[in-house]
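User: I'm writing a tutorial on reading structure tokens. Could you give me a worked example: one chain, its sequence, then its tokens, then a sentence or two explaining what the tokens reveal?
Assistant: Sure. Here is the example chain.
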Amino acid sequence: MSLPPYRVQYSPIIDRPPIRWPGGERVALWISPNIEHYEYQPVFDGQRDPWPRMPYPDVREYSYCDYGNRVGFWRMLKALDKFNIRCTVSLNLAVLEHYPEVKAAMVERDWDFMSHGIYNTQYLNTLSEEEERAFYEDCIQTLEQHTGKRLKGMLGPAISGSEATPDLMAEAGLIYHTDWMHDDQPVPIDVKSGKLISVPYSVETNDGIIFRSYADGENFYRICKDQFDQLYREGEESGRVMCIAIHPFLTGQPHRIRYLEKTLDYIMSHDGVWQTTADDIADYYIQNYYDEAVAHATALSDRG
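And here are its predicted structure tokens:
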């Protein structure tokens, strides 16, 4: 049986070289609003059905997600502004063309952006390598055209990808991937050329999982608080990363928004928090820790 290539060398967190965030902060906190666009009549690729509940159009599911850009985004924006949060948007790039007011609000706040695909109803797993190369080129050019920003990272559209995805990302000049939710620190990802790292994202402190599992706002707050408290303690010895992923159509609902505010109020009341973006985490880690981490993991592998 052939096995897929290993992308990340094993390195237990208990004996890694310590990480120190800028200013000696314990936790690098990044907030990732998933600003998405879903197609009303998507094309089924034969493997993953975007709207499996019923034949297209599924008005209920489409309109539920559409609430985010019409209403939820603006309610969420007020909560984030209250705490001066600078975000890394997990962005369906089509948003920049379909929703000019949303684009303007994000650009005005100098948020960073990682690709979350063009649409959240088009996936990477069935693309050829040439098609996937064209996808990155489209993402890079679209982001630069509309925001002036360089694309540095990606959360795969609906967290989809191919075996070649890390290599093709690095080939296109991207430096971080957030699909690899396997650590509390950045770690190098093996690629054919260039440098690519995993920046910790989360399906734990993620409203898409919490609220769709029928938990309520107090559960969201408690989960985020407990996550932060543990990482904050551990971060005294070596820096940790915490991501909170939010969706405007979920957290932006009237009955939920106060729990985002409550969560941010608690975390931001602590000293030792580097409220930052995934772009800045990736840049800082690659500049200061990438080579050391590769050498350490390689030495462990050689001993094994």
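What the tokens reveal: The mean pLDDT is 96. The first strand starts at residue 27 and ends at 35.
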